[in-house]
Amino acid sequence: MAANVFPVSYYEELLPKLVAVLELTQQPAGTSTPESKQRLLQAANNFKNALAQAKDVSGNLPGGELRIEEQDDLIYMLETLRDRKRAQLAEFSAKKIISRSVDITMEVDSLASTPNGSVSDE
């Protein structure tokens, strides 16, 4: 399983298992027979195990070790940072870039450019 994939299947199976438990408890015969008690116990254990798995998965999600208040603080800080970056980008994109051509002049040493490479004393 990839680290970024949220395992939805653990949570999708909770409701049907809970419904199975509730249906068994609402039957007219109830839990009067050993067979019905056994089915109810099995359904309750299935729900309990699925709930434990879902709890383990949610506890191991990144950020799951943070309290709600800490998560809210972290979310607020990240949203503030995002908004500042957006404002900086908007400000930068609104600026006009002015290109200035630079006039570079070079002085050429006439002695260094003589054809024979010799320096004459005049």
What are its keywords?
rod-shaped; nucleus; mainly alpha; single chain; 4 helices; 122 residues
Topology readout:
Elements: H1 9-12, H2 14-25, H3 34-59, H4 68-94
Helix pairs in contact: 2-3
Short summary:
The protein is mainly α and 122 residues long. The chain contains 4 helices and no strands.
Description of the molecule:
The mean pLDDT is 80. This protein is 57% helix and 0% strand. The chain has 4 helices and no strands. α2 (14-25) runs antiparallel to α3 (34-59). With 122 residues, the protein is mainly alpha-helical. It is found in: Nucleus.
Q: Structural class of the helices, strands and pairings?
A: mainly alpha
How many discrete domains?
A: 2
Describe the main β-sheet briefly: none
**Residue share in helix:** 55-70%
Chain-averaged pLDDT? 80
Task: Assess the beta-strand content as a share of residues.
Answer: under 5%
- SSE string, helix = H, strand = E? HHHH
Q: Give start-end ranges of low-pLDDT stretches.
A: none
Taking all Cα atoms into account, the compactness measure Rg is 38 Å
